[in-house]
Amino acid sequence: MTDITEQEIDVFVGAVNHYFDQITGEKAKIRSSFLAEGDIRPPIYDFTGLISIGGDYRGCIYFSATRVMLMRLLLAMREPRQTDPHLLDAVGEIANTLAGNAREHFGETMAISVPMTFQGAAERLRMTVRERPYVIMIKWKQYEAAVIVDIAKK
Amino acid sequence: MASPTAWKMTAGEFFQGLFGKYIAILIAVVIFLVSDLGVLGTNIYSSFRIAESAVSINLSGRQRAMSQRFAKALLLVEHDVTRGVSHQTSLQELEYAAYIFDTTMTGFRDGAMVTGGLGSPVFLVKADTPEGRRLVSETYRVWDPYKKLLQPLWDTLPPGNPLFNEKQLEEAAQNQWRSSRLQSTFTQEEVDAAVVYMRANNVELFNHVNALTFELERDANERAFRLRMIQLIGLTIVLINVLFTVFMSIRDLMRGDRNLALARKETEEILGTVREGLFLLDHDYRLGSQYSKSLNKVLQRDVFPGMPFLPILEEMVSKNVYDNARDYIELLFGQRVKEALVTSLNPLSQVEVRGREDEQPHYLSFNFNRALEDGRISHLLVTVQDVTEQVRLAAQLEAAKGQSRIEVEVLLKLLNTDAGVLRQFLDNVGKGLAQINERLRSEDDSEKARLHLLNFVMRIVHGIKGEAAALNIEMFEDYAHGFEKELVGMREKGEVRGEDMVRITVLLDGFYERLAAITNIAEKMAGTSSGSGDADEKYLQTFVDSLRSLVARIAGDEKKEATVACDLGDIVRLPRRVANELHGITIQLLRNAVKHGVESPAEREAQGKPVNGEIVVECKEIDRDEYEFTVRDDGRGISVGKIREVLVQKGALSVEEANALGVDAVMLRLFEPGFSTASEADRDAGHGVGLDVVAEKTMKLRGRLTLNSKIQAFTEFKIRFSL
């Protein structure tokens, strides 16, 4: 068995799903789950919110979503302004939720950074800690986003 | 609990105590006794001396009176003589007063028994001060001539002066008070001479005895003063001694209190700081008054002094452990049992406990040590540690050891496996896993698609399991088996959720890890193994060996007897890709043959068959580039009725539908995913995947599969394919 369990992965995926449920009243679902292995690279969409992990673990966890999904999310939040900074704020907010859940679940064993946000492909996302990072595809309405879990125990 | 003998002290301890910390008290007691006895002794002595002084002063005062008494008597004698009347009475008075005066003076000079104030004899001490001696001497100087002048007068008296008592008469006779001249009368001159002397010296004599009286009074006063001083000093010493003793006692008490407070503070500091739970247990199994602060935390319970320990324990551990622990504690309190001998019996040296604060398994270690008082067990000192982390680490270490053992095992098995076959196997596994991952990625989230996905994953995993079993790589086989079981569980729920997809991904990741580990070993081996021997021959050998070992293992597990006979010479003429597919097919069919086809030895014997079931595997080129591959067993055959029954049981068909189904249609159902006639799933059958894999691989070969079977005779699978 690997050093990460599905319960641990669920801490992050659950955080995202819960966020959508809370904010929009409509649950997000896991569409699929796979490994970024071989030619399959972790997906990076238009906007990405990331937290870095330290402590007993290392690596990062990030949420990446398309522009259109985030715009729809802002709409559901009755936020009329949909500029790039607003979209970045939205992914940042989701990354913040990831961090919060991780803190609650892992406690002192995991040191969690302040969330960072990126627009487009970021160089640091090409580097992975795991041989095969976990990719969990989230579906909300007809839109897709991904939670990538790339952490390993030290 | 203090035993009755707890305060017994040996002689050594007594003396050690006496000259040790009790020395001050001892000295104080000695000083008290000495000063008290000193004062008492002086008191007694002085009281005697005061009594003596009282006699002396009294008699000295009487001397003054006597001096005047005999002067007066002398003047009466002279008067009587002059008038010519009887002078005998006056003369008797003169003699008596003179006698008392004279004997008393002897007492003052030498110390003697004299006539006391009331006539009875008393001892008169001599006047011993210098002034006293001088005054006595001065008195004698006057008295001696005086007495000589008076003597002729009373010598004329007839014997036995009536004023004398018997004792005085006796003494007077002894002392020769009267001279022996025996005259019947005295002369006028003798009287006159005495009167003249008296008139001249009476005042001086009076003054001397008077002064003696004052001197004696002064001496008595001085003695009394000395006695008071001695008493005062004695009392002062006693008072100082008492104060000293009180001071020493208070100082010792305060020092004791201070030491006690310090010891208490140290104990409290220790008990407040140690991470272990520490407490004392008495004979009633109750907690002592002091225990370490961390005890509550370690036990995850609130404890208080005097709390019964056994109910706490009962709440925390299983009944069995609790009973053993109670016995063990009883044993430790038993005086006759040696502590060292029973330590190994401690059932609580590492025990899983039920915590209150969290649900996680929690391990504690209790250690019991006897606390002795006067050689008897007074308490048990109990140390409790939370060893959860150590237990977890030990388990991890054990797992790591297990992992290394598996790796060594794998390595040994791989050394016996043909490198080409192994590489091919690992390639197949890699490809299989990649296929699963690709399907996971591209799958849509409809229920139907997910069930398809599940069957797809199951087929690949089952295939890997079979091949791993044939190559005897248990590490893969076991993992694939576990994977498969989870997939079956998901399928049986009838609904595949998003979380299940994550679970499959995690399992897939684990598979990849194992693949990487074995690939790593295989690559290292490739560098060291020699490439000797004919490759085809070695391939064939490995192929055949793997089938034999698989059949032997499954037959052993099933308690059956079965062997495989191979005629596979032509297999090496096939491309390895095809041969590998056939290998995969053979594995599934052999599993089914041993598990479902071959009967138990008893059953076979009853049917008149040889006990040993035989499975034949053949591969023949029947035409140019056309091959026929056969797997045939001599077992019980396939029962169409049994298949119908299972289909009805599973709810796939109604009884009517099942009965209406033709034999071919029933047989086809065997190749559907999820079908199995085995009542329980194990790693060789029961998940309903085997024939599913066979069908899939046959399709890959674009082959044609024929199934023949006869009840209680045989089952035969034939695959025809062209290259």
Structural overview:
The complex is a heterodimer of chains A (154) and B (723). Chain A is α+β, with helices and mostly antiparallel strands and 154 residues long. Chain A has one domain: Chemotaxis protein chec (3-Layer(aba) Sandwich). In chain A, 34% of the residues lie in helices and 32% in strands. Chain A has three helices and seven strands. The model of chain A has no long low-confidence stretch (mean pLDDT 86). Chain B is rod-shaped, with a radius of gyration of 67 Å. In chain B, strand 3 and strand 4 form a beta hairpin. Chain B folds into four domains: 154 residues, no CATH class; 113 residues, 2-Layer Sandwich (Beta-Lactamase), CATH 3.30.450.20; 120 residues, Up-down Bundle (Four Helix Bundle (Hemerythrin (Met), subunit A)); 191 residues, Histidine kinase-like ATPase, C-terminal domain (Heat Shock Protein 90). Chain B is an alpha+beta fold and 723 residues long. Chain B has 22 helices and twelve strands. The N terminus of chain B is likely disordered. In chain B, helix 3 packs antiparallel against helix 4. The two termini of chain B are 95 Å apart. At the A-B interface, helix 1, strand 1 and strand 6 of A face helix 12 and helix 15 of B.
Shape of chain B: rod-shaped
The CATH architecture category of chain A equals: 3-Layer(aba) Sandwich
CATH secondary-structure class of the largest domain in chain B: Alpha Beta
Low-pLDDT sequence parts of chain B: 1-8
CATH T-level topology of chain A:
Chemotaxis protein chec
Biggest β-sheet: strands ordered side by side in the sheet of chain B: 4-3-7-6-5
Radius of gyration of chain A (Å): 14 Å
Q: Span from first to last CA of chain A? A: 16 Å
Radius of gyration of chain B: 67 Å
The CATH class of chain A is Alpha Beta
Q: Note the main sheet of chain B.
A: 5 strands, antiparallel
Principal-axes shape call of chain A: globular
How many strand segments of chain B?
12
Mean pLDDT of chain B: 84
Query: Which pair has the most extensive contact?
Result: A-B, 24 and 24 residues
